[in-house]
Amino acid sequence: MRRVILVIGATLLVLCGCGRSGGSLLLLEDLPDVESIEIEGNEAFDDGTLEGLMTLKEPAFFKRPFKKSRYSERVLKSDLQAIRTFYYRNGYIRATIENHQVRTRDGKVHITIQLTEGVPFFTAAIVLTSPEDPGLKSWQEKKLNPKRLQRDFGLKVGKPFDPFSLTDDRRTLTRALEDRGYLLAKVTPRVEFDGTRALVFFSVLPGVTFTVDEVDVVNNKAVPTRYLLNEVELRSGDLYQRNKILESQQQLLQTGYFNDVAWDTTGVDRQASQVDLSFTVSERQMYWVEGGVGVSSENRVRLTGGWGSRSFLRTGTRFALTTETELDLDRGVGSYIDDHQSQILLRQSRLAGSRWEGQPSLTFNHDREPDYRQNIYGAGLSFRRRLSGLRDQIVLGIENRWVDNDSEASAIERDPQLSRETYQTRSLTGRIQLDSRNDFFEPNKGSYREVSIEVAGGALGGNNGFRKATGTLTKFVPMVPGRAVLAWRLQVGSIDATNAKTTFTGDPVESEVQLVPIEDRYLLGGANTVRGFDQNELDGRRTSVGEEETEEGGIVSLLGNLETRVALFSRLSLVGFLDAGNVWQDDSELALRGLIPRSNSSDVSPSDLRYSFGAGLRVATPVGPVRVDYARKWNVPELLMEAKKDTWHVSLGHTF
């Protein structure tokens, strides 16, 4: 483990850019440090607000402990312009910077900025006019609503007048007309002032609506054009709509085939009011190979690998083969493999020209426990459709799993499910995902919500019957914009057995968990759920089962995570976290009083919620952050106390 920590430390130093060249350091040393910044003449906005707009900063240890602000005349000019722009955008359109002084004393730079604010101007009215139709009577026939066209304006009546928004709103209005087919619409803004009141006029010439003539995708080689045209929302003869063109552009990018997609209107025929539409694509490498190594605990190493094609045999169908193997280094040579998963899948978008995507798959899972081994073979077919947002989707799936058990007597005695050498589970799954995160790898605002329902047995057949429902809510709240984020996740799950109320050995059921296949139960613990605990350590057991513990699982699950993510410098950030979770083999074990942590382990019940806390580092990379976490267990009952109370986790990507 000591070697692992040394390797991680060396990697962090390299990735954080600690090995800068001597030339770069000398260049920085030639620039003096900024010692003080004084702003005079400001009344509407305090010094902190204005200095926050500047790149040059005064020294502040607690905010910027390892970073000095080096003076540069070019940067100062940019900062002065930023202050002017800020005033203009807040209605102070006559604000000026009268003077600025830069003095050097004892090798440090002192900056003084003198400004005159003037008085604020406010937007008194926004009026849309048309030289061809002053009363806008024809707009009703054209289904143009002036109030709706102004809905996304930056300028608002009664708010400060922002001259920059005038140009932005002209563009917004032009694009709103283009969304309604008016390709050649002309918009001219004009402002009249009455004291400090700004009267804004937009002169609009909509023109005529255009239709689409020809639609084409060019520069594609590996993916046939006929498949790509399914992603385009406009067809020949449709009304020209700019918003649908942008949606088509995003959908082409979402296919994963391309690095870039650009669109253009060509062949504008003013007499026929028609326009050709062309998408120019830049293809990615169609074949890919990937691999990775992760450390889930001191004695467990996870290996991942994959190979695939984004357009298998140039058909536009995605193909992927992925594997994941977990090794237990404490076991003897030849028996390192603890768990293994393999998956082969094909994905075809736009089935029969619809918005649905189809994905057949084959899976294999091997699970090795102290007194039983399990092989699971699966075949499934899922259908996915994106909702209103490009990252919101609904997924429907059907799956058949064949399970082979090789169990010892102790395993069968403990769990009747393991008495069966082979069985089948057939299930239907429905899942909806709503994703409003602003970034996939480093979100700092937004949320992720998911609800999944699985039904097995009954009319589907098979040897097992149950209903399984799981809900997840993740939220990201900016604490300090660009610097600190509060992130939290809550996940709850429940399984209800629907088959006979006797075990497969014919004995009465002691707990409902005995009616649910062991591979379908909930398990928690590890780098991605409750840190500080080993992978799947929280499995519903209420007593210790010896040195080698067997995973059992539960039918009720509760998981909560709370993180504070703080950017330090370069690509390095610090995370503090609190995790909580447990699974229960019977819903009667879950009690409200068991959710509160106890200070004394003797007061903790085995069915209470388990907690852990710790801190970690994140290093940003193009494929997501590399994370190193140290976590310590908390709220563990005496019955399950172990010598090991803390754990290191090394992995790729955030925990959630």
From TrEMBL:
Its main location: membrane. InterPro entries: Bac_surfAg_D15, BamA/TamA_POTRA, D15-like, POTRA. One of its GO terms (cellular component) is outer membrane. It holds the Pfam family Omp85. It is found in: Membrane. Keywords: Membrane, Transmembrane, Transmembrane beta strand. Gene3D superfamilies: membrane protein fhac (3.10.20.310), membrane protein fhac: a member of the omp85/tpsb transporter family (2.40.160.50). It comes from the Bacteria. Residues 32-118, 210-284 form the POTRA domain. PANTHER family: SORTING AND ASSEMBLY MACHINERY COMPONENT 50 HOMOLOG (PTHR12815:SF18), SORTING AND ASSEMBLY MACHINERY SAMM50 PROTEIN FAMILY MEMBER (PTHR12815). This is BamA/TamA family outer membrane protein.
